[in-house]
Design goal:
Layout lengths: L2 E6 L5 H10 L5 E5 L6 H14 L3 E5 L4 H8 L5 E5 L1 H11 L3 H14 L11 E7 L10 H20 L2 E6 L2 E4 L2
Parallel strand pairs: 1-5, 1-6, 2-3, 2-4, 4-5
Antiparallel strand pairs: 6-7
C-alpha cells in the first residue's frame, strides 16, 4: 500500500476515510495527532477521535516535531496515520521555525518509512491534510502565506504518495 495521501475540505470525511482504510490492515498501528487541545471544543473533538479509533491504536500527540516522531516510531509499526498536516503546518508557522526546511524534512522522513530496514513488508502510512486553496483569496498576508505553504506541502506529499484521494462530501475520489 505504501503512502496514502488524503486531502479535502473541512468536514469532508478525510479522517474517517483514512481510519476506515487503515483499520482494515493488519499489524501494529500508530496514530500521530498534531492538534492542540487549546479550548473546550477542540478537547471534545480530540476525545471523540480517540473513541472512534478504539484501543487497537497507539496514539502520540505531537504538534510540531512529527518528522522526529515518525523517525523514532517507523521500526515499531506496520500502519501509521498522521492527522493532520494542516494543523501541523499552522503549529510550525506559529513556532517561528523555517517552514520550508521542516516541510522538506517531513517529506524525506515520510518517503523513507516504507524503506525501513529489516522489515520484509513495507508499512502503510496514511497522511491527512486539508485542501485550503480552493476558496477566496484572503486579505490577510499571514493567511495567504499559510494557504501558499499548505498548497506546496500538499503537492510535495502527493508527489511522493502511492495513492492520493480527494474527499468531496464524504466521497473519496481517487486521483492517483
Amino acid at each position: 500500500m505504501g503512502i496514502v495521501f488524503i486531502t479535502g475540505g473541512a468536514r469532508s470525511g478525510k479522517s474517517a476515510f483514512a481510519l476506515s482504510q487503515a483499520q482494515g490492515l493488519t499489524g501494529e498501528k500508530v496514530f500521530i495527532a498534531t492538534a492542540r487541545a487549546q479550548d473546550e471544543e477542540m478537547k471534545v473533538r480530540i476525545e471523540t477521535h480517540k473513541t472512534q479509533r478504539g484501543s487497537v491504536w497507539d496514539t502520540y500527540e505531537e504538534p510540531i516535531k512529527i518528522a522526529e516522531l515518525i523517525e523514532s516510531l517507523k521500526q515499531r509499526y506496520d500502519v501509521m496515520l498522521i492527522d493532520c498536516l494542516t494543523l501541523w503546518l499552522s503549529n510550525v508557522m506559529h513556532a517561528g521555525v523555517d517552514v520550508t526546511h521542516e516541510m522538506d524534512r517531513l517529506g524525506g522522513v515520510i518517503l523513507a518509512v516504507p524503506q525501513r530496514a529489516g522489515i520484509s513488508s513495507a508499512p502503510a502510512i496514511f497522511i491527512v491534510s486539508n485542501e485550503v486553496g480552493m476558496g477566496i483569496v484572503s486579505e490577510n498576508a499571514l493567511a495567504r502565506q499559510f494557504r501558499d505553504y499548505q498548497g506546496i506541502l500538499n503537492q510535495h506529499i502527493a508527489s511522493i504518495a502511492n495513492e492520493v484521494y480527494l474527499m468531496v462530501a464524504g466521497i473519496p475520489v481517487k486521483i492517483k
